[in-house]
Design a protein that fits this description.
- The chain is of the alpha+beta class.
- It has one domain (about 5-64).
- It is built from one helix and three strands; from the N terminus they run E-E-E-H.
- It has a three-stranded antiparallel sheet with strand order 1-2-3, with helices on one face.
- The two termini are about 25 Å apart.
């Protein structure tokens, strides 16, 4: 399943005060991160979301 993630929100989360914590796991890669800010979460998602799609595009270009 490409581009799927499990995001768990931690008990210390307080979005009104800008506190965000929890963990995230890439379903297809198994990579995990315990994040402590929205920036960390979004960086992980961006890096791991792009990777499988880039590989698929490269594979399609080689075949076609």
């Amino acid at each position: 399943m490409r581009g799927a993630f499990v995001v768990r929100l931690g008990p210390q989360m307080d979005s009104a005060r800008g506190r965000l914590d929890g963990s995230v796991e890439g379903v297809d890669t198994g990579q995990r991160l315990k994040y402590r800010s929205a920036e960390e979460l979004l960086r992980f998602l961006g890096q791991n979301f792009d990777e499988p799609f880039s590989r698929a595009r490269e594979s399609n270009q080689r075949e076609g």
